[in-house]
Design brief:
Helices cover 17% and strands 40% of the residues. With 144 residues, it is of the alpha+beta class. It is globular, with a radius of gyration of 16 Å.
């Protein structure tokens, strides 16, 4: 069971703030998220069912492990994805590849026999303007 929200806009500028926010809670046999291994070695696709195929191939920018106030361990990942074909105006195209155009912020924890997850997906413009706030959104998620 999960929820998904789309189209958050800044109330003053009316510009898009984030593409999508998804939360899920599904039964799991895991006792704790750490059963998957070290956070930096676990892929998001291993931890979270149904991750967009784009983010399965995304580059891991950051991975972290933290504890909530009740002692629940939370794994989080920041992933970036570049388009498969660079745009005509792409300054880093060619051998270096394309610039990232999508960012995915993910977090997962096991709570009461359920795998609880959040995904915050943004495009490059949303990320440039609100990256710190988007991380704060993901990191403030209540895993209860």
């Amino acid at each position: 069971m999960g929820q998904s929200w789309r189209g958050f806009q800044d109330r003053f500028t009316q510009k898009s703030v984030v593409t999508t926010v998804k939360t899920r809670s599904e039964p799991t046999s895991l006792q704790d998220i750490t059963a998957l291994g070290k956070v930096e070695l676990v892929t998001v696709a291993e931890a979270i069912n149904g991750v967009s195929k784009d983010f399965v191939r995304g580059d891991m920018i950051a991975a972290a492990k933290r504890k909530t106030s009740d002692g629940t361990t939370v794994y989080s990942w920041d992933l970036a994805v570049a388009p498969s074909v660079c745009g005509a105006d792409e300054q880093f195209g060619g051998a270096l590849g394309c610039s990232y155009d999508r960012i995915g912020l993910f977090a997962a924890a096991v709570k009461n026999g359920k795998l609880v997850t959040i995904e915050v997906l943004a495009n490059a413009d949303e990320w440039r303007g609100k990256g710190i706030s988007l991380r704060a959104l993901r990191d403030s998620f209540d895993f209860t």
